[in-house]
Amino acid sequence: MNCYILIGGRSQRMGMSKTALFLDRIVAAAGPVFAEVIAVQRSGGEAASSIRTIFEAAHDDEAAVFGLARALADAPGRCFVLAVDYPLMSSELLAYLARDGRVPAWDGRTQPLCAVWDPSVLPRVERRIADRLYDLHGLIEQEIIPEPELRARFPGEPLLNVNTPEELQEAERRHGQRFLSSR
Fold it and tell me: Where are the domains of the chain?
């Protein structure tokens, strides 16, 4: 199974590149688990230097559904799609999620950008894009892993989604180190 890391966001709420902050850490966690780890970048974006990068088709809107569509078009079979903004992710959790196949719930929300996807859903994704329906939750077909089940197995905050400087500070506090030493 391949892992596709979505790196095409503009990091506007963060104010700095989440790819620069977290990609190496995410690749280190995903590398031992998956056959190949591939970056998915928006059209015209910069390729990742450490792993193969594929690019979304050109489009005017910004939404993760475009990266999901590109990953599913590239995937030879079931694949794992992972946003770059989970800096506390571990290989153990990724292996568990890849085997389990359900979509995790964390902080009271499902996490479709940290889940197994089947390329057979691509026509539905493309229809939703054509209809400008970009919410990924409407595409989830798998069962949900309840948050208490995950928290019992995986201590800490491995599914902490980091999108703002405040969330970054919280992740650094929980991890005990800075993610980018030059900040």
Answer: 2-175
- What's the distance, Cα to Cα, between the start and end of the chain in Å? 35
At residue 10, the pLDDT reads 65
Whole-prediction pTM: 0.92
| Fold classified for 2-175 | Spore Coat Polysaccharide Biosynthesis Protein SpsA; Chain A (3.90.550)
Distance CA 80, CA 14 (A): 25
Instruction: Write out pLDDT tens, residues 52-76.
Output: 999 998 888 989 999 999 999 999 9
